[in-house]
Design goal:
About 0% of the residues are buried. The chain has helices at about 1-35, 35-55, 65-80, 90-125. The chain has about 130 residues and is an all-alpha fold. The longest helix has about 35 residues, at about 90-125. It folds into two domains: about 1-55, no CATH class; about 65-125, no CATH class.
Length: about 130
């Protein structure tokens, strides 16, 4: 089974990724080589301005919420005893309930300290 999956991935890479990459790479190179120098400089300056603008307003996108949800899901599945169970043998509703448990525990872990800080700040303002 593993050998079959590796062969499927390699065939997909050979039949889809390489031709598409070659096509877009050659097309982009030909388009770029046909541009005159003024247009190239205009595009470079436009890209540089956009990059500076993004740097100015860029924040840490993503954070760690996805990783936290993933690891909490793994912990809950382990505690339930379904660690060695095949994914397809469990019903979809099980994974929905795991998501609810993750939200519940995340709300407890982060919600209680958040409420304490809000209470402390409200007392400090008064």
């Amino acid at each position: 089974m593993q050998r079959f999956l590796i062969l499927v991935i390699l065939l997909e890479f050979l039949k889809v990724v390489l031709p598409a990459g070659a096509y877009f790479g050659i097309t982009g190179f030909l388009w770029w080589s046909k541009l005159n120098n003024e247009d190239k400089e205009e595009l470079k300056s436009k890209w540089k301005k956009e990059e500076e603008k993004e740097k100015k307003y860029r924040r840490n996108v993503g954070g760690g919420w996805g990783g936290l949800v993933f690891f909490l899901s793994l912990i809950i599945i382990f505690i339930d005893g379904n660690w060695d169970t095949a994914i397809a043998s469990l019903p979809f509703s099980y994974y929905v309930f795991v998501c609810f448990w993750v939200a519940f525990w995340a709300a407890i872990v982060f919600g209680i300290p958040f409420l304490i800080v809000i209470y402390w700040l409200s007392r400090k303002i008064d």
